[in-house]
Specification:
About 35% of the residues lie in helices and about 20% in strands. It is α/β, with parallel strands linked by helices. Bound molecules: S-adenosylmethionine.
């Protein structure tokens, strides 16, 4: 009997998608994220209705990343800033920008301007739907738009206090474009810049779903292309570039001062219990073990020998401007 949930993609559609991906990598990626489905937001960032639960498959990395982002908001507010402008490049379903706007509001910023954009229209649509409550707040001007990071950004020079580009947006771009894109992100940023990408030694990912839901995948690191066949019959080929730490630093060091370059999640995912193998081993899942893992994450995350083996590489940077200029409202 045919399972009605499984959609077999006709061979001609696969070929057409592959042609589109080759001719225009941006549109190829957009098509893939447009078809990612309603469950994608929860897979990517945790329950989209519980913004601060950090309960998704990437929970440990998400919590570490949030600590970094939260600290930047707190620092701006503590320095007396009342207004803030935030930009999320490749926002996906918008969860991170919603987190930032929610927190900025609770910190008492009186004017919060925030723009998220993504090349995938379905993701932007989802972000808009999920953010309606925030957009209604009088202090908040929040927009989500369809746009390509390879195009010039509409923001003015040095107008953004916090620019984020999270979870592999940069990994989907053509390497040849990265120097220009890094300069463009720097041009509009007057405050902080935070990005994560997939490093060269990271465990595999198929980006739109868990690796377990992939029947097979093959990453070609010469062409930066990954061919994926999901268990539900979807097949696609997408641009994926894996970064070395020095390469990532190289793109941004010209215009930013790098505060942090480190691996995120070297040990937590690898030590996580797999319920398909051994579902009930509470003795192995205690808090002490968890805090030991965090201790070794701290010890090895910034180690040059280890950081490229993490699930993500985290780069935190700021524009090297005079203090008075940076904190001026
Ligand atoms: C793994 S998702 C991460 C989404 C979001 N940053 C998050 O953390 O939830 C990568 C996103 O990059 C977007 N993307 C890829 N290439 C892009 C481009 N050229 N311009 C804008 N967005 C792009 C994809 O559509 C996708 O939503």
């Amino acid at each position: 009997m045919v399972n009605p949930n499984i959609r077999i993609v006709p061979e001609r559609d696969v070929a057409a998608a592959a042609r589109l991906a080759r001719a225009n990598p941006g549109q190829g990626v957009a098509a893939i994220y447009n078809q990612a489905g309603a469950g994608y937001a929860a897979y990517a960032d945790g329950d989209p209705h519980q913004l601060f639960a950090f309960d998704g498959p990437h929970a440990y990395a998400d919590r570490c990343l949030w600590e970094v982002l939260d600290a930047k908001l707190v620092a701006l507010r503590a320095a007396g800033r009342c207004e803030i402008r935030i930009l999320d490049a490749g926002c996906g379903p918008g969860t991170w920008l919603r987190r930032l706007v929610t927190r900025a509001h609770s910190l008492g910023f009186s004017r919060i301007s925030a723009r998220g954009f993504d090349i995938a229209g379905a993701q932007v649509e989802r972000a808009r739907l999920l953010s309606r409550d925030l957009s209604d707040l009088p202090e908040v001007a929040l927009t989500f738009e369809v746009a390509d990071l390879c195009d010039r950004l509409p923001e003015n020079d040095k107008s953004v206090d916090l620019t984020i580009c999270l979870y592999s947006v940069l990994s989907h771009l053509e390497v040849i474009r990265l120097p220009w894109i890094a300069r463009e992100l720097a041009r509009v940023t007057r405050g902080f810049f935070v990005a994560t990408v997939r490093p060269i030694g990271s465990p595999p990912s198929v980006f739109v779903d868990t690796v377990e839901n992939a029947q097979q995948f093959r990453q070609d690191n010469i062409l930066d292309r990954c061919r994926v066949e999901l268990c539900d019959g979807r097949c696609f080929t997408m641009n994926i570039h894996l970064f070395s730490a020095s390469e990532l630093r190289g793109y941004f060091a010209h215009d930013f001062e790098i505060e942090t370059l480190r691996g995120l999640d070297l040990f937590h995912s690898r030590f996580a219990l797999d319920p398909r193998w051994n579902p009930l081993v509470p003795a192995l899942a205690d808090d002490q073990f968890d805090s030991e893992l965090s201790r070794i994450e701290d010890a090895y995350g910034a180690s040059p020998r280890f950081m490229e083996h993490a699930a993500h590489l985290l780069l935190v940077a700021h524009r090297p401007v005079a203090t008075s200029e940076r904190w001026a409202s």
